[in-house]
Amino acid sequence: MAFVTRNVANAMATSAVKKMVVKTVTVLGSGLMGSGIAQGVGIRLQAKVAGLKFVQDTMKNISTSIDAASVVHSSDLVVEAIVENLQIKQDVFATLDKFVVQTPMTSQITFEALIDFAKALGKHPVACKDTPGFLVNRLLVPYLMESIRLHERGHGSKEDIDMAMKLGANYPMGPFELLDYVGLDTSKYIMDGWHELEPNNPLFAPSPLLDSLVQQGKFGRKTHEGFYKYN
Ligand SMILES: NC(=O)c1ccc[n+]([C@@H]2O[C@H](COP(=O)([O-])OP(=O)(O)OC[C@H]3O[C@@H](n4cnc5c(N)ncnc54)[C@H](O)[C@@H]3O)[C@@H](O)[C@H]2O)c1
């Protein structure tokens, strides 16, 4: 586990209204999501240079630590992106809650600060209630799981299903390519959690094929093998 702190001072300098300003961000976890989030945050908006200097300027905004407690107390924002395991997440939050402010609900000022922060990073934030999978994963994960089930039932090869969805739905990746990219372990843990919440929901039913691949340590691109093999 790595804790990556990125300084994004000045990112919010144009805000006309005095609001909560996010200057220093800690990203917990340095896997697929954590490294991607940290990269997005670390890139200074005003950087117009290209190539090596851009990388060097970005890296100046970054420091890393394996001691979360030593960095979160000086952070304006903490983004949790560790492994999809409720107990591990709860353990980490139990540790960090000693250092960060706890509120029972997200305040409007926090909500607005995060919307502004995301916009300052060039993102397009959307609002969503606190619900499993929020918007994207709530739609995406059942689709990915149904793709596996379609293949498990012998209705199509993974290659043909991927090709069909890329050409038929104009998706940049087919479901099996995307599953390998997301991580089969992460996908399984998400589905297991939802299945536990709603055991009778067929959209959240586990897949023997997915379970078997994860059991074999085939997590997708991160382990060089999932539904496909990678060099
Ligand atoms: N992969 C995706 O496309 C995707 C999309 C949306 C949300 N998410 C969510 O983001 C989170 C991270 O997913 P990911 O794909 O980056 O996973 P990942 O497997 O790539 O990375 C997991 C990170 O958790 C850390 N970790 C593992 N065990 C830990 C422990 N005991 N204590 C603290 N940290 C530990 C690892 O070192 C690693 O940095 C998960 O909750 C996942 O559901 C992932």
From TrEMBL:
It comes from the Eukaryota. GO terms for molecular function: (3S)-3-hydroxyacyl-CoA dehydrogenase (NAD+) activity; NAD+ binding. Residues 54-100 form the 3-hydroxyacyl-CoA dehydrogenase NAD binding domain. The keyword Oxidoreductase applies. It catalyses: a (3S)-3-hydroxyacyl-CoA + NAD(+) = a 3-oxoacyl-CoA + NADH + H(+). Residues 133-230 form the 3-hydroxyacyl-CoA dehydrogenase C-terminal domain. Keywords: Fatty acid metabolism, Lipid metabolism, Mitochondrion, NAD, Oxidoreductase. Its EC number is 1.1.1.35. It is found in: Mitochondrion matrix. GO terms for cellular component: mitochondrial matrix. Its main location: mitochondrion. GO terms for biological process: fatty acid beta-oxidation. InterPro entries: 3-OHacyl-CoA_DH (IPR022694), 3-OHacyl-CoA_DH_CS (IPR006180), 3-OHacyl-CoA_DH_NAD-bd (IPR006176), 3HC_DH_C (IPR006108), 6-PGluconate_DH-like_C_sf (IPR008927), 6PGD_dom2 (IPR013328), Mito_3-hydroxyacyl-CoA_DH (IPR052242), NAD(P)-bd_dom_sf (IPR036291). The keyword Electron transport does not apply. Pathway: Lipid metabolism; fatty acid beta-oxidation. Belongs to the 3-hydroxyacyl-CoA dehydrogenase family. This is 3-hydroxyacyl-CoA dehydrogenase. It comes from Eptatretus burgeri (Inshore hagfish).
